[in-house]
Specification:
alpha/beta, Rossmann fold, 10 helices, binds adenosine-5'-triphosphate, binds magnesium ion, P-loop_NTPase, AAA_dom, DNA_Partitioning_ATPase, AAA domain-containing protein
Amino acid sequence: MNIIAIINHKGGVGKTTIAVNLAAELAALNQKVLLVDFDAQANATMNFDVEINETVYSAIKNDQALPAYPINDNLFLSPAELGLAALPSMYVGKVNQYTKLKKALKKGNDYDYVIIDCAPSLEWATINAVMAATHVLIPSQAEVQSIQGVGQVLNMIEEANEDSEHVEVLGIMVSNFDKTTKAHQMGLEHLQEEYSGQVLESKIRSTTTVKQAYMMLNTLRDFAPAAAVTEDFKNLAKEIHGKVTA
Ligand SMILES: Nc1ncnc2c1ncn2[C@@H]1O[C@H](COP(=O)(O)OP(=O)(O)OP(=O)(O)O)[C@@H](O)[C@H]1O
Ligand SMILES: [Mg+2]
């Protein structure tokens, strides 16, 4: 089971958009995919028109497997709720506080991919995601503030691997990219110099189609199958599937 956590503690860099649409595109490659919304903001959950009773929060609290609501034949959603924010305080001082998500995933079904949408923080939830993950994907806008976040995420992964190597950095990927903007071109060059060989080929362009799809409670491939940004996500899914299965 390939478990990919999408991490950058800088807010609004496109984590949720990537989690949702990468999950949908991997599912379209005939992979069985569980999208885990591990952010109390529940933005990934709100991307879908699904009636929910159980969430990641209730599953972890009750020591159960994560819920999996079908979106289509291959794609399943494990939803979030605001209550998730209360979980860390329940486990303060417990030795196993950072392996709660890992344990809940182990109790559930097998998937080809689990995609974890993380909150903009490097605290309890994100540490749990790193401990559960086999791979980490680091989105960054080609802008200085989010590039600064990349180094801190890489340090966190290094720490997580200190005792035993369990999580691999799949790469840094550029989201919300406007190639006509000089600042974005400079930001991309900076990322490529600073993190040579670690920046993925696939970039996600900036376009209002992303917001429209979200408002219509849809993935990009369902909302705008012929859009250029949908093609960006198809390419991202192929690049990631190629790396993971290489
Ligand atoms: N490629 C894109 N083009 C245009 N807008 C985008 C793109 N990707 C994301 N956005 C918009 O930017 C905002 C932030 O995106 P998103 O919610 O995916 O980021 P996030 O990193 O998950 O945020 P948070 O840190 O709050 O969880 C949203 O309004 C989203 O619609
Ligand atoms: Mg988000």
